[in-house]
Write a structure and sequence with these properties.
about 1000 residues, Four Helix Bundle (Hemerythrin (Met), subunit A), 5-stranded mixed β-sheet, 12 strands, EC 2.7.7.42, nucleotidyltransferase, GlnE_rpt_dom
């Protein structure tokens, strides 16, 4: 009794539930006692993975009983994984093909590893089966070959040959079910095979029909007949079980041609599949066969919209190939002009609704093909877009749904994510359809009922689904069906109903073009200072007859409307021309503008405001993609995490072996990130602290990566010194602006017995190389590594050892140097050395006894002298962001004075950040909350204004403009309404900084 229990448990684990399974397995020699026979374990596991192990075992038992070469079969089954996967995948999935294999047991040889479906051989195999010469001209030609078999013998031979090929194809399709490591035959590959096999079957059927209709070779006369596939067969995407839609064209279209066509349909229908000719002109009431002129005349005069939609998939597959090609050449121009018909779009949309309305409510939720979220949703959406846009874009003219969808996606007519998602869902739905039809080789599109768990489990396993830890395989199937149906429906509605009505680019080109007089008048009305100059840019953008020029014609009315609301439309249009010319060879550029309305709006705002953005954009065009709205479930790439950006930069530079290439990569990544941050800043996506942190993080990553690459180039081993880079000034405080230099100190330390001289020499070489490579001439904002804050300034050595720094600061340092060290922090190089440097300078910058009155007086004196001597001649002190009243220097010196006075006793003040220092000073009671707010507002306002000047001018500047378009652009960059009074910004700036200055005078100067 125990043995039976163990056996039952083991067999149940393998998925075998029938009581007879143990005895059957024993008879087959695969099982003994309570475990598989030695060597049969792979066989048992393949059997267990079959969609229905019980069905597969029953069929295997019948097959083995029918074999005449059982030993060879057993040996191959144990040794050949491909045979196991194909056999058990097939036997557990299709009773019809399993029966065919059992009826012809020698066919198992066609399932071994080295064989497989061969589309190139389909035609020869099926023609040979009916006794036709594969090398003769096709039947249907005036001198076409004919079969030697006719009647029931021909039908049986064709049926058997067709099922043989179908058996091999289905086994290959299902192989990965039984053996997961075998290659997966994708559903579109299977559909293409089935279409080729159907074409071969029709070629054989017409050869048989010719022999039956015209027993004597001269009876057919000189007539020619071509068979045109329509529907899924024409689209090279046939199902396992489907009618094959055809249209016949003949020369002449006489009784003999009709007889041959009708006989071919009967032969193919009895042997392989139904042949449906109801898509012919006038449908089932029309003539079965027409001449080429008859077809053309009908389509020109009488055809309805749906008939042109059907012709989109027309493809000659049998009969006279020249006549078939002539038919395709004749109807194609009518297909690709059908969208110009009145109410074309409405007709196609109404047709889809009629199809949907005919689905019975009780099965609508299980309908894979016709229901909401089904296959027809995908096909109608794709065909509508093809027919509209294929007029001018021949790349869209594929009759295959997935190929056409890929072309629509590549061409920008469908968003890439939408195209990929729609294709994935379409493949999933087609896979379920294929599996359902394979079971009994019956035409069906219905999922099993929700309460039929056995059928659903079989379907899920046949579709290679697996439990996911939360749900069993049935739950996974139902969840995937629901998810994909909803996604298809959502995308269908998006693509099928809206794009043609909302996207200006979808309009015919001539409806969106402006004549020159109309353009000039419009430009003047929209606020262009120089309409003539703008017209010159428009002529350059739309010159010629290229596709790009056509797209520009349709885009420009929208772009001009958007630019008119910017501070400087003239400069914006010039910038757009520069960007367009620079990106002329970038295939996605205009498509992105055409398909993403948010990109157009954002880009025009950026170009009409900033000189820096277009300068960077022509060298970092990929940032344009970030202007699109983020897709659902994805973070906005325009506001990436600075830590993620820095890690990506370091990784990219580390891949480069050559230090020059590494430095160029670092500069390129910095350019990309500076542009990204600038766009996010101007669009209001980042606040001031985030902008400064992002720019500082990029600069630190550039220094880190370049230092590492230089050290690698000088030798990965036997380095005589450790090197650390100490950030100073705004870099140390993580407060860099767009035009800031990187203030640093270089410190080294000898290793492995090297002398100080050797260490300094090596470290100096590294430091000079880093500065030289990063400071190489570039059209981007400069990358200046400034080491002037080092001991003795420019006169002192570029690099010192840690001990040398200690000696200098102990004997010679002045008060200003202690103040400068307040913002020192390690940013690159050896982390341990950086920590020791900080430990060295902490007692200097955070004196335990604070500052003497004399020291405070000295700091105030230095500040007054700096303000007086460094302010440019003629500068407006109220509008200078750095040295002006209430500007950056006022706030920073105030914070630094408080740190020098109190950080020795208050560790919370030991920060390199100005704003953090203010907050901590407030928490410590050194400043009132009101003072903190006023100082923070002044620093933030001045920093934002300084950054805005750089964005607008494209070059650094501390003085705010007093009037004109430049002031309007600065105000717009800071979020003030375009077209408003830019003087409001100046008033606001003066008011904020005046309040800040009042606090500075009281706290810093003690007035």
């Amino acid at each position: 009794m125990r043995s039976v229990t163990r056996t039952g448990t083991s067999l149940a684990r393998l998925g075998l539930t029938e009581a007879w399974a143990e005895a059957t397995l024993g008879e087959l020699g695969w099982w003994a006692g309570d475990r598989p026979v030695a060597g049969a374990e792979p066989v048992m596991w393949s059997l267990a993975r079959s969609p229905d192990p019980d069905l597969a075992l029953r069929s295997a038992e019948r097959l083995v009983a029918a074999l005449t070469d059982r030993p060879a079969f057993d040996a191959a089954l144990r040794a050949d994984a491909a045979l196991r996967g194909r056999l058990f995948g097939l036997l557990g999935s299709s009773t019809a093909l399993g029966d065919h294999l059992i009826t012809h047991p020698d066919r198992w040889h066609r399932l071994v590893g080295g064989t497989g479906p061969d589309p190139a051989g389909y035609s020869a195999a099926l023609l040979t089966a009916v006794g036709a010469d594969p090398d003769a001209p096709p039947a249907g030609c005036s001198d076409g070959g004919r079969a030697t078999l006719t009647g029931p013998a021909a039908i049986e031979a064709l049926r058997t040959a067709y099922r043989d090929e179908l058996l091999v194809l289905a086994a290959a399709d299902l192989a990965a079910v039984g053996e997961p490591e075998l290659p997966v035959l994708e559903v579109d590959e299977v559909a293409a095979h089935l279409s080729d096999l159907a074409a071969a079957a029709l070629q054989a059927a017409i050869a048989v029909a010719a022999a039956e209709a015209f027993p004597n070779s001269g009876d057919a006369g000189e007539g020619r007949l071509a068979v045109i596939a329509m529907g899924k067969c024409g689209g090279h995407e046939l199902n396992y079980v489907s009618d094959v839609d055809v249209v016949f064209v003949a020369e002449p279209a006489d009784a003999r041609a009709s007889k041959l066509a009708a006989r071919m349909m009967r032969v193919a229908g009895e042997a392989c599949f139904e042949v449906d000719a109801n898509l012919r002109p006038e449908g089932r009431n029309g003539e079965l066969v027409r001449t080429l002129d008859g077809h053309v005349s009908y389509y020109r005069r009488w055809a309805k919209t749906w008939e042109f939609q059907a012709l989109l998939k027309a493809r000659p597959i049998a009969g006279d190939p020249e006549l078939g090609a002539a038919y395709l050449d004749a109807v194609a121009p009518m297909v690709w002009s059908a969208a110009e018909r009145d109410d074309f779009v409405a007709d196609v949309q109404a047709m889809r609704r009629r199809v949907e309305d005919h689905v019975k409510p009780e099965i609508a939720e299980r309908e894979l093909k016709l229901g909401r979220g089904g296959l027809r949703d995908v096909e109608f959406a794709v065909q509508l877009l093809q027919l509209v846009h294929g007029r001018t874009d021949e790349a869209l003219r594929s009759p295959c749904t997935l190929e056409a969808l890929a072309a629509l996606s590549d061409g920008g007519y469908v968003a890439r994510d939408d195209g990929a998602n729609l294709a994935a869902s379409y493949r999933f739905l087609r896979l379920l359809e294929h599996r359902l039809q394979l079971q009994k080789l019956r035409r069906t599109h219905l999922l099993p009922a929700a309460d039929d768990t056995d059928a659903l489990r079989w379907l899920a396993r046949a579709a290679r689904l697996r439990p996911d830890g939360r749900r069993d395989v049935v739950g996974v199937l139902l969840a995937e069906w629901t998810r994909n149906a909803r996604r298809v429906r959502r995308l269908h509605e998006k693509l099928f109903y809206r794009p043609l009505l909302t996207a200006v680019s979808r309009l015919p080109a001539d409806t969106a073009r402006l004549s020159e007089p109309a353009a000039k008048a419009r430009l003047a009305a929209l606020g262009w200072a120089s309409p003539e100059g703008a017209l010159g840019h428009l002529r350059a953008l739309t010159a010629g007859v290229s596709r790009a020029a056509s797209i520009q014609h349709t885009l420009l009315p929208v772009l001009l409307e958007e630019l008119s609301g910017s501070p400087d439309p003239d400069r914006g249009l010039l910038a757009y021309r520069r960007v367009s010319e620079a990106l002329a060879a970038t295939p996605w550029y205009l498509r992105l503008l055409r398909d993403e309305g948010l990109v157009v709006s954002r880009l025009m705002k950026l170009l009409g405001t900033s000189a820096l953005v277009p300068d960077l954009l022509v060298r970092a065009p990929e940032v344009l993609r970030l202007l699109a709205a983020p897709s659902a479930g994805r973070a906005d790439e325009l506001t990436r995490d600075p830590a993620e950006v820095a890690a990506s930069l370091r990784t990219a530079v580390a891949r480069q072996q050559d230090p020059d290439t590494a430095a160029a990569t670092a500069r390129s990544t910095r350019r990309h990130e500076m542009l990204r941050v600038a766009c996010a800043d101007l669009l209001g996506e980042l606040d001031t602290e985030q902008v400064c942190a992002a720019l500082s993080s990029v600069w630190v990553a550039v220094l880190e990566a370049t230092l590492a690459s230089v050290q690698r180039a000088l030798g990965p081993t036997d380095r005589p010194a450790r090197i650390a880079v100490i950030g100073m000034g705004r870099l140390g405080g993580a407060e860099l602006g767009y035009g800031s230099d990187a203030d640093v100190l270089f410190v080294c330390e000898p290793v492995d017995g090297a002398s100080d001289q050797e260490a300094v020499k090596y470290a100096t070489t590294v430091a000079e190389t880093v500065r030289r490579r990063l400071g190489a001439p570039s059209p981007d904002p400069a990358l200046v590594v400034d080491a002037d804050l080092r001991p003795e300034g420019r006169s002192g050595p570029l690099v010192r050892t840690l001990a040398s720094y200690a000696a200098y600061y102990a004997r010679w340092s002045e008060q200003w140097e202690a103040q400068a060290l307040l913002r020192a922090r390690p940013i690159a190089g050896d982390a341990g050395l950086g920590r020791r440097f900080v430990e060295l300078i902490d007692p200097i910058r955070y004196p335990a006894d604070g500052l003497s009155d004399a020291a405070v007086t000295e700091i105030r004196r230095i500040k007054s002298r700096v303000d007086a001597e460094r302010l440019p001649r003629g500068a407006d002190r109220s509008l200078h962001t750095k040295l002006g009243l209430g500007g950056l220097a006022d706030v920073e010196w105030t914070v630094q004075l408080l740190q020098l006075q109190h950080a020795g006793d208050l560790p919370e003040l030991r920060t390199t950040s100005t704003l953090e220092g203010l907050r901590e000073a407030g928490e410590a009671g050194l400043l009132t909350p009101e003072d903190v707010a006023e100082l923070a507002a002044g620093w933030t306002t001045a920093t934002r204004a300084r950054n805005a000047v750089m964005l607008v001018r494209g070059k650094p500047g501390d003085q705010l403009p007093r009037s004109g378009r430049e002031l309007a652009a600065v105000a717009a960059a800071l979020g003030y309404p375009a077209g408003g009074d830019s003087g409001v910004f100046l008033d606001d700036y003066r008011r904020v900084t005046r309040r800040t200055r009042a606090v500075v005078e009281r706290v810093f100067y003690g007035w």
